[in-house]
């Protein structure tokens, strides 16, 4: 038996956008249910994101600590950012985020996993990359602003992150999914068997 998600779209009788923000918006759809009734569904429309699990030669993951106002916590995360331009190549976006947030570059890139963060209330799709063969980036550091002015940067052993995830001490979804996916990939064929960095991504199509 093959288990996989499949595309499907139910009839929409009406749609409107009651709120439009700087990067995201809220959409309201009147969706026809299987029994013919119509139900209203509100959800956040999101451009999509990329995240980078950067693994160094000492088996440590590059993580950042950043204040997140909606949850009123300072979270440990992996570098991540929005797909600001429609159709943007996610690999290029991931390389940019790794440079901007950590001033690091990587020679080896692979797709670790693709996820929908909150499919019941948001259409955000995230591609999480595995980046290896790390080195310091050249040139000037990116000028940080807002929450990013107080970023903390660390390199933490994979085992310590796994412990923190399972102990309920680390909560960022990309970090949790990325670290556990890394663990699963190591127990499978190998990290080199992961999908190539430019693997198709139906949730956010792009040009290579």
Characterise the protein shown here.
- There is one protein chain.
- It contains 3 helices and 11 strands; from the N terminus they run βββββββαβββααβ.
- The protein is of the alpha+beta class and 208 residues long.
- A 5-stranded mixed beta sheet has the order 7-4-9-8-11. It has a 3-stranded antiparallel beta sheet with strand order 1-2-3, with no helix packed on it.
What's the gist of this structure?
This protein is 18% helix and 39% strand. The chain is an alpha+beta fold and 208 residues long.
Which features would summarize this protein structure in a list?
208 residues; alpha+beta; 5-stranded mixed sheet; 3-stranded antiparallel sheet; 18% helix
Biggest sheet overview = 5 strands, mixed
Give the total of beta strands: 11
| Percentage of residues assigned to helices | 10-25%
Provide the spatial order of strands within the biggest beta sheet: 7-4-9-8-11
Portion of residues in beta strands equals 35-45%
Order of helices and strands: EEEEEEEHEEEHHE
Distance between the termini: 32 Å
Instruction: Give the overall pLDDT as a whole number.
Output: 94
Number of helices: 3
GO molecular function, one term: hydrolase activity
Keywords: Hydrolase
InterPro entries: NUDIX_hydrolase-like_dom_sf, NUDIX_hydrolase_dom
Protein name: NUDIX hydrolase
Write the layout of secondary structure elements.
Blueprint: E1 12-20, E2 25-32, E3 38-45, E4 49-54, E5 60-68, E6 73-77, E7 80-82, H1 90-102, E8 104-116, E9 125-136, E10 152-157, H2 158-166, H3 173-187, E11 195-196
GO molecular function: hydrolase activity
Pfam families: NUDIX
Domain Nudix hydrolase: 44-183
């Amino acid at each position: 038996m093959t288990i996989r998600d499949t595309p499907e779209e139910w009839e929409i009788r009406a749609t409107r956008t009651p709120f439009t923000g700087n990067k995201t918006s809220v959409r309201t759809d009147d969706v026809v249910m299987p029994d013919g009734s119509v139900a209203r569904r509100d959800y956040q429309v999101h451009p999509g994101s990329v995240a980078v699990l950067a693994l160094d030669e000492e088996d440590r993951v590059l993580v950042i600590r950043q204040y997140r106002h909606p949850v009123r916590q300072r979270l440990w995360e992996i570098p991540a950012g929005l797909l600001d331009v429609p159709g943007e190549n996610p690999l290029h976006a991931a390389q940019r985020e790794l440079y901007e947030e950590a001033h690091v570059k990587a020679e080896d890139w692979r797709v670790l996993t693709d996820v929908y963060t909150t499919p019941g209330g948001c259409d955000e799709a995230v591609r999480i990359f595995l980046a290896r063969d790390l080195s310091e980036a050249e040139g000037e550091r990116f000028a940080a602003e807002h929450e990013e002015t107080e970023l903390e940067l660390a390199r933490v052993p994979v085992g310590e992150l796994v412990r923190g995830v399972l102990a309920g001490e680390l909560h960022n979804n990309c970090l949790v999914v990325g670290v556990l996916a890394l663990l699963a990939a190591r127990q499978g064929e190998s990290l080199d068997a992961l999908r190539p960095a430019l693997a198709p991504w139906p949730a956010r199509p792009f040009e290579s």
